[in-house]
Amino acid sequence: MADAGAPAIPVPVLLVTGVLGAGKTTLINSLLNADHGLALAVVVNDFGAINIDEVILSGTGHPVFGLKNGCICCSLQGDLLRTLRAILSVRAAPDAIVIEASGVSDPRGILEALFDPVLREAVRLDAVVTVIDAEDHDPDDALWRTQVRAADFVVLAKGAAIDPSALAALRATLASMHKTLVFAADRDGGVPLDLLLAGGVRHGAEGGIDPSPRLRDDRFVRLEWSSPTPISLPRFQATIQHLAPHLARAKGILCVEGPPGRTYVFQLVGRRATLTPAALPAVGAQLVLIGRSGMFDARRAAATLETMMQR
Ligand SMILES: Nc1nc2c(ncn2[C@@H]2O[C@H](COP(=O)(O)OP(=O)(O)OP(=O)(O)O)[C@@H](O)[C@H]2O)c(=O)[nH]1
């Protein structure tokens, strides 16, 4: 875990959205109880005066911070920022922060809050997960569509009881909205929690990527690549552009050739890729790529990396 005050790398934030009763708390509960060894902190926003979700999640051993009587996408934005600062001010920052939005939240307001100029040095949005009630949802509802549009990963809750054709229709709606990373909580082996928490696979004091293979889920394949020396940024960008259609997730720490020469944290979640400058004592590059089994050929990707990065 990072030291107090100024984590060397911003702490990743997983934002969980979904309409009222969709299954957000249930998903977060399984994240908190899973065997990942990560120290998580949770911020829960309940729209009403009593924060039931805070009580439910408090038994998991991870610190839970409740925000009630309003919505963190609007009236409670300031409270959200204060809470995140409080979480980061403890001696050892968590490996990741999970935020449960209230069921009426527009995720755009929360994303706006996370781009606060002071906070963005310390926390980084890692992924947005939208939970959908497979039994009861309205694809014409504006809030539903806004939440789905914001999603990097979609989780379908309560899918076991519904007709396969209804589930197929929902998947087709999501595909028409360009959502391909869709996981059914009650079917197909459930939600790959390791994938949702991949951003929390964090760094020791020396700032390297944790090399232990955490992805035990055989629906996904993982490839690690490293370079002992700084890499060319344009070559890296071209290589990732080439590989991105086959990837579900990627992350890395990259020292790039100068001048001026800089270190970046690279993140790719779904279709969103970011490069954030970081003050890390890294010398070369370390990269982790994750793709779906059958769609991502790790051996071929390794060969592509070797060839394209050396051109
Ligand atoms: N069968 C089934 N029930 C689920 C699933 N996910 C959630 N539920 C049930 O749905 C109800 C609502 O779940 P929550 O996780 O509290 O939903 P939420 O989105 O956090 O609700 P709010 O915070 O009120 O917006 C609970 O009774 C859960 O047990 C699922 O995948 N399958």
By CATH, the superfamily of the largest domain comes out as P-loop containing nucleotide triphosphate hydrolases
Q: From the 3D structure, determine the CATH topology of the largest domain.
A: Rossmann fold
Give Rg in angstroms.
Answer: 19 Å
Distance between the termini: 37 Å
Mean pLDDT: 83
Domain unit count: 2
What hetero molecules are in the model? guanosine-5'-triphosphate
Outline the low-pLDDT stretches.
Answer: 202-209, 211-215
Order of helices and strands: EHEHEHEHEHEHEHEHEEEEH
Apparent shape: globular
Domain CobW C-terminal: 220-309
Function: Zinc chaperone that directly transfers zinc cofactor to target proteins, thereby activating them. Zinc is transferred from the CXCC motif in the GTPase domain to the zinc binding site in target proteins in a process requiring GTP hydrolysis.
Keywords: Chaperone, Hydrolase, Nucleotide-binding
GO molecular function: hydrolase activity; nucleotide binding
Report on this structure.
The chain has 311 residues and is an alpha/beta fold. The protein has two domains: 11-196, Rossmann fold; 210-310, CobW-like, C-terminal domain (Hypothetical Protein Yjia, Chain: A,domain 2, 2-Layer Sandwich), CATH 3.30.1220. It has helices at residues 24-33, 52-58, 77-88, 107-114, 142-150, 164-176, 193-196, 233-243, 298-310, and strands at residues 11-17, 40-46, 64-68, 96-100, 123-133, 153-157, 182-184, 220-227, 249-256, 262-269, 272-277, 285-292. The radius of gyration is 19 Å and the shape is globular. 28% of the residues lie in helices and 26% in strands. It contains nine helices and twelve strands. Helix 3 packs across helix 4 and helix 8 (233-243) runs antiparallel to helix 9. The strands form two sheets. The chain has a seven-stranded parallel β-sheet with strand order 3-2-4-1-5-6-7, with helices on both faces. The chain has a five-stranded antiparallel β-sheet with strand order 8-12-9-10-11, with helices on one face. Strand 6, helix 6 and strand 7 form a beta-alpha-beta unit. It binds guanosine-5'-triphosphate. Guanosine-5'-triphosphate binds at residues 18, 20-26, 53, 103, 157-158, 185-186. Belongs to the SIMIBI class G3E GTPase family. ZNG1 subfamily. It catalyses: GTP + H2O = GDP + phosphate + H(+). InterPro entries: CobW-likC_sf (IPR036627), CobW-like_C (IPR011629), CobW/HypB/UreG_nucleotide-bd (IPR003495), P-loop_NTPase (IPR027417), Zinc-reg_GTPase_activator (IPR051316).
